[in-house]
Amino acid sequence: MSDIFREIDEELRRENLLKLWSRYGKYLIAVAVLAVLIAGAVVAWREHQASERRAQAGRFASALALARDGKSADAAKLFAMLGQEGGGYSLLASFESAELLAKAGDRQAAIAAYDRLAQSTGIDPEFHDLAVLLSVMHAPPDGDPKAAIERLQPLTASGNPWRASALDLTAAAKLKSGDRGGALEIYKQLADDLSVPQGLRARAAEMAAALKS
Questions:
Q1: Which of 76, 148, 142, 157 minimizes the C-alpha distance to 113?
Q2: pLDDT at residue 183, as a whole number
């Protein structure tokens, strides 16, 4: 008897499934097709993005090669184009473009480029601070030292990756403004800080010794 009841139960299940399929089957097929199309589109988009990244990497490498070969004008154009494209190499290209302007002697254009980077939204704080640091570093000799000190102050905080360089520039700005005591204090701090790069520590020690004499 149990076998008969089992067969009846299975037959009822098949009938119910057939009814459900006849009612909703076309919708299930549509959903399945849509899922396949979406998956294909996602794969295609990811491949497109990967292809764009590879192409950007190639153009960035070409620009670096032009710069190494002394073709600064051509390199600057390519870096500028990459900087406007967006994507992973855009930010690096913008920094390289600004540095080429500085090397070419166009100090004001380089500072303006670094300031644009410093004012950009959506970039990591480390790159923002680097742009500020480089802008101050390329400031003209007759620039306002107090303004430089003010801009560098946030970069001198403990834990900032550019702290040592910012302190070095701050000391130079204080010395320029006539604050020998303030400059000496910073140079001594740099010379005694083991986390500061050796070259910078040595130079800071020399400056501290010179200011003491």
A1: 76
A2: 93
Round to whole Å and give the CA distance between 60 and 139: 27
- Residues shown for the chain: 213
63: its two tokens: 């620009």
What angle (nearest 5°) sits at the alpha carbon of residue 159, between those of residues 154 and 160? 45
User: By the 8 A CB rule, do 171 and 200 touch?
Assistant: no
88: its two tokens: 């992973």
Q: CA-to-CA distance for 206 and 11, rounded, in angstroms?
A: 96
For the chain, the first-to-last Cα distance in angstroms comes to: 112
Number of H helices, E strands in the chain: 9, 0
188 Cβ contact partners less than 8 Å away, ≥ 6 residues apart: 204, 208
Q: Which of 139, 121, 134, 133 is nearest to 176 (CA)?
A: 139
Distance CA 194, CA 201 (A): 8
pLDDT score of 205: 94
CA distance readout (Å), 187 to 32, 102, 148: 69, 27, 17
Token pair listed for 137: 């570093």
Q: Which residues of the chain have pLDDT under 70?
A: 1-55, 57, 87-88
DSSP of 70-88, one letter per residue?
A: T-HHHHHHHHHHHHHH-ST
The reply to whether the predicted model has a pTM over 0.85 is: no
Query: Which residue type occupies 125?
Result: P
pLDDT confidence of residue 160: 93
Cα angle 111-151-198, degrees, rounded to a multiple of 5: 85
